[in-house]
Amino acid sequence: MVAHLPSFVHRLLDGDEAIYGSIAVLMNRGGALYGAGGVDNKPPGVFWIYSVIFRFFGDYQMTAIHAAGFIAMAATCVVVFLIARDLAGARAGLLAAFFYGVVTAAGNPRLLAANTEIFMMLPLSASVLLMLRRSWFWTGALLVAAGAFRQSAAVNVLLAALALFWLEPQERLWRAAQLLGGGLIAGLIVGAGLIALSGSLAGFWRWTIATLVGYASASWTPAFVWQRAKDSAVPFVVDMAVLWIAAIALATRWRTLSPQVRLMVGWLAVAMAGSLAGGHLSWHYFIQAMGPLAILAGLAFDRFRLTRTATAAAVAGMVIPAAAWWVFDMTADPLTYDFSPPGPQHVAVSAYIAAHTSASDRVFVWGDWPALYVESDRAMASRFPGFLRGFDRGSNLAPNNWDTSPDVWPLLEADLGSNPPALIVDTSAAGWSDFSMYPMRNYPALWGIVSFGYHQVATIDGVVIYARNG
Q1: Number of separate domains in the chain
Q2: CA–CA distance, 386 with 367 (Å, rounded to integer)
Q3: Is the peptide bond before 444 cis (omega within 30 degrees of 0)?
Q4: pLDDT at residue number 265
Q5: Alpha helices in 29-155 (DSSP H)
Q6: N or C: which terminus of the chain has fewer CB atoms within 10 Å of its end residue's CB?
Q7: Does residue 339 sit within a domain?
């Protein structure tokens, strides 16, 4: 709980939270998800959670969202405890649960955010627990529930197939496979029904499935991968070296491991594959691997007997990076990592928006800064919370991203025509998030609306703000 306190100090912990929140507000105003209610390339689970919480606590009530994220993390700790306890006893379970709680907070603020991965890990870990207990129908159903938060949960289907062969006797294998398949099919049917009720099935396919290949291929450019790896993958491995050393030391005893413990090694392998699959390599992607890593480390420290010196070194190796990140996360601005005055300029821009619009007005932000919607408590005028998301904006690559494809611009025009924004905020003019290479005038569908219907009223830290004529 102490490790996760920084998540309750800041209103937003990263831009993804702003995307989910701004879309949830449109959904609660009657828009269909993957339609007029907001478009993103994530599955619907996280939007449903944000939408329900906002209905109970009010629009953009991010403290309630962070509490939900903390509860999901704590519940996953319980599941991790149960898995490790079933494998080696209560001591191993307590160690594994403790490791998961700490490692999910020992990183930059994005790691602490109420993101897709932290919600995904609860049903994903529960599916592994039921896998070990050979409850195959509910294993399949929970795998689908995990996939409702992030597509990469699908890699655990491979783990389930491996579990069938390792845990079931030959005479029961076919029956177990039928139950697993039945759970998967039942979960998919229920999921499709919920999407049809809250959004658009066609839009779901268009934005979350059809975009995957292009999104991953753009992210796998070598320079982009190395940049992300330096900021996320390398610190994740180095800062949590104690857990990695323990887990690898256990895995090297492969011949002495039971099939159930070997399955945990397999879980870590497929989880790392899922974390790396998109090529984007943000730190919070590795939450998918933190569950099995914590379990293997808990089993290792329960099994191996260390000297006092080695124990002290292991404790220091956990505490020092966790404490350093705790101080950073408490004091730095989560969106800019800025410490010093005059403070982050996005606060000034959001304050201007709030002061010059009413609660019923809509706003349009050009760039990749949906945080301005949340901080100003204003709804989006468009279904798109940002543009060139997940794209290497500092490169010379053509900006042919999934959210700038040809079918985006007619939808954007229709949205701005149906909900004319009171203000249009141009963050590209200030180069926020490396957006200076993509000025509005380069996009005729947008620039036509701005040049004929709006006039410039303010410039804040280089951000140009336009108001509607008349």
Answers
A1: 2
A2: 6
A3: no
A4: 97
A5: 45-57, 62-88, 90-103, 109-112, 116-132, 136-147
A6: C
A7: no
Chain centre distance of CA 439 = 28
Domain boundary among 304, 331, 358: 331
How far apart are alpha carbons 413 and 391 in whole angstroms?
A: 23
Is 320 in the same domain as 452?
no
What does the buried/exposed string (b/e) look like for 214-229 if buried means 16 or more CB atoms within 10 Å of the residue's CB? ebeebbeeeebbeebb
Express each pLDDT in 183-237 by its tens digit: 999 999 999 999 999 888 999 999 988 877 655 555 556 666 666 666 777 888 8
User: Phi and psi for 261 in degrees, rounded to 5?
Assistant: -70, -35
- Could you tell me if residue 35 is inside a domain? yes
* Angle formed by the axes of helices 116-132 and 287-303, nearest 10°: 50
Alpha-carbon span 115 to 294, nearest angstrom: 19
Q: Is residue 336 part of a domain?
A: no
Give dist(CA 77, CA 69) in Å, integer: 12
Residues in CB range of 125: below 8 A, 6 or more apart: 76, 79, 80, 83, 291
Task: Read off the pLDDT of residues 389-398 as tens digits, 9 standing for 90 and up.
Answer: 888 887 788 8
Q: Which amino acid is at 45?
A: G
CA 169/CA 124 separation, integer angstroms: 24
